[in-house]
Amino acid sequence: MDVRLPFTSTVLCLTLLLGGCSPKEEKRQVSLEEKTAQFEKSLDAIADPKLKDAISELGGSLLLLERARLKLDSKPVETEYSEDALAVLKHYATPQALVDTYINGLFVLHKDSSSDYLTDLQPVFPFSFNAPAAFMFPHGLEWQSVTLSNKRVIPFQPEWSETDPGIQLSPSSSSLTNPDDLTVTYPFVEGVEVDNKNQPQPLSLQGKVEVIAPHRVYSFDLSKKDVGKTRTNDNLNVTLLKLEKNYAEVEFSNSAPLAPEVGDTPLNPLIVQAKDSTGQFLSRAGSINETAAQIAFYRKQLEEMQKQKAWSDAFEKQLDDEQIAFEKQQTRHYTKVYFNGPIETLDVSVLDFSAATVTRKDLDLPVRRFDHDTTDKTIAPLDLPVVVYDDQAPTWLKGATLTEEQLQKNVSITQSVDDPSAARIEFEHIRTFNDDLLGTSFSPGEIPVSFFTAGSNGKRDEPIELPPEAYQVDPLRGTITYDLNLFPETPAYAVGSMPLFLATVEQKALDAHQLPKGLELKGNALVVDFKRFPADEWRFFAKDDSGNYLKEILSVSHDAGADGPALFGVHYFYGVPTHLETYQRTDLATVEYGFEIKLDKAQLSNPAQ
């Protein structure tokens, strides 16, 4: 029997690495630590291994839930914005149209590896979903095999085998950012030189995909006035139980039975989003999806376990029957969602699985090669039968009109004195589209920085005379590194000016049928002549007749050779552009960011200091 709580994995995701707590929260924290210690001690007295594992798992989950709740309740309310989790769905007439785009927009890239014995394969999805706004429909993707250029078929295996002497297809162990990546591993022969190009190359990747789409998604707009009320749309019912500064409690029920196609598939039919007074979406801090009744039930089961001397089939059946009976009584879904910022309104969306469409497809995807830089003169086609929009583009492009004041307000300063011989001051700012257009021709000039001691009142006092090697300024990285062991006196303040860089950007809108010389559209590919439109000065965005920005699939730079110039670039889009927007850097200015920083204290290696 699986006695894990249904919310175990959720709670694991919620555990927040927060720092300080209020005195009240600290007392609760001490109490929780005491509970944890008592629970762990009680486990030592259990002899039966199956009983011990069951109690450990259920009790540990309950403690983890309590810890997550404590962390979320004590988290400071600091505003942080996010994107609309349902933005992508709003571009498609039906949920099924989104599913079709997801499946038909998938392709596979051949990627170079640092080893002659490895070839990496990267499945590229048309949508980029990040937790907690992952692909909202139940889905599964299973890779089965790869077909090589010598017509040999290599089956997929869940992990690479050190003892397998043949060619292997397994998940990539080197890609943490792309967990779906795969690796074709060729056998290594001691003392034999191998050239990867002479190995049989992957031609196609086989697998299967399944997606379950609800027949509709309905959204309720709620605010403080809706607390305690139930809003209904046909078979869907949503009740706003509570709406506080940074969290909301919501219940949902579907009066219609679930579609048979859904079966025992785990569902997450509720998507709760919040906006603040500016109308922007707030990012989620976490959620608790268990009611007090559910927690009480699992605590009761834990107590029953703790009374047992040994695990038995009869006791396992009893727990199973109790859980089935309890879950049948749970007709409503509950969630308490925390947000990073003060809530003004809620957007509660419900996925209606009273009817559903199951899409299953066998995949046989050609492996395509598109290197970032190539010497090929021919333009390879990458025409996918889908249209995908870039909902982040409008926000990103606001950086084209960034002002000096906005840039300076964006700066945050951090210090590191863990290593007194390499203490650091770092000037950072949120990356914008303006940074993307800065190019590489920087002339920061002289960087004035002075260090000062502190007077008896703690304020800035005398400047410190220093040898040149005592500190170093890197304006391009925005860092000041200094060696405290070379300071004749302990510095208390740093004063100076750090250069920031701001591009002047000129924007133009073009009709795809009337492009200037040097720009050419070939279907979904925009070809750019680098002689007329240098790559470090120009950026291009595409729209179709809907007025939405098309998402770029990838871009390729075609070069003359190892030492030759870049000739032209190709930008591929999910869809055929009918309008272009060009952004050109026409000037580059240096913005002086003046500072006076009180320095963090470090433990110096020189006792005299």
TrEMBL record:
It comes from Pseudomonas fungipugnans. This is Lipoprotein.
